[in-house]
Amino acid sequence: MFTTFREANEWLQSRLKFGIKPGLERMHVMMELLNHPERRPKYIHVAGTNGKGSTIAFLNEILQQAGYVVGTYTSPSLETIHERISVNGVPISDEEFIHLVNTVKPVAEKVEQTEFGAPTEFEVMTAMMFDYFGRVNIPDVVLLETGLGGTYDSTNIISPLISIITSIGHDHMGILGESLEEIASQKAGIIKSGVPVMTAVQASSLLSIIEKTAASKKARVYSLNKHFSILEQNERLIFRTPFHEYENVKLGLSGTHQRSNAILAVMAANYLTFYYSFQIERKHIKEGLEKTFWKGRFEQVSKDPTIVLDGAHNVEGVTALKETVRQSYPNRTVHVIFSAMKDKETKEMIDILSSFAHRIMFTSFANPRAKQAKALYDEADVKLKFYEEDWVQSIERMKQTLSHGDVLIITGSLYFIGEVRKLFVNN
Description:
This protein has 2 domains: 5-291, UDP-N-acetylmuramoyl-L-alanine:D-glutamate ligase (3-Layer(aba) Sandwich); 299-425, Alpha-Beta Complex (Protein-Tyrosine Phosphatase, Chain A), CATH 3.90.190.20. The protein is 41% helix and 18% strand. It is built from 15 helices and 17 strands.
């Protein structure tokens, strides 16, 4: 039995050596050994390449405004592993973490001796989450984010009230498939029989895959620009769903890409109200959207100089960042510090960053999957480029050379952004 958080977390992190192993067999066995805690809560299941966390953040705030107790399971953690399992935005405590590890550890070790092999770190963490929300602290609803894909994701053992697919893009292609169509099929794997699915996917070939999967399971599809929509009139946002129209909508998160995430949350809230008797009023939705905050998503952490953190960790994320920077700082010189994982499409990401950055500093951080700064530098076809392996030094070097009015964007891996955020928020 572990008695300290350090011991419990070291054991959990030791599971990383088992890597990523798609499949649900180990989860099903662990749930059976735990007496199926996953069957008790109500869930909203969220998959997608980008936008999962933001959609959950919007819906979490809306539900809290309406007085509900909301559990969330998100990944990766930005600053501490506790935040992956949270209630009303408050991460579990050290004591709760230790209790959950002590509960799941013997179960994981039993499964390790079976034909299915050792549960991974993510599978163990997911089992801890199910035990927490199913037995230790049962909320009114759990907002559940997939870790990877959908079909074989460890979270995909539940029957939710609603399924949400935010977007489909190029990410984790070595596991999910080389084409967007293959990736879409994996994301559509969260669709359950008779459970409505809401999506912001726009490409007809990808939406068709979602619709066909849903039709085979008699699940109704609600899609952006077909069943619900976003209008902009006189610089005011209007959200329309089959249930309501909301005028003068204000969002707490920056960037036009956040609009589709926000309306997915609104659509889900409306559906909960009309079909599951949740008491969510118009004011709860508007106040929730405006008050939503999501750490590390175009988050300004310094005013003088202006420094913004954004976890743009794939091509689609960097594309959205480009648009948000141009909207937010149209006449200012922008500088970028960038770090990423080895398995990302870094060359394409750098090309996008170079289209709006005056100069780019490449750096790295303490993670075995992190790409070295020099390797990123060598990939970059950028006139003003620099590299510094020590990310703290890279920030200091860049800050010293900023002119008045310049903007520094620190972006890339969410793990990197989590480390950087500690430097600014805790000091």
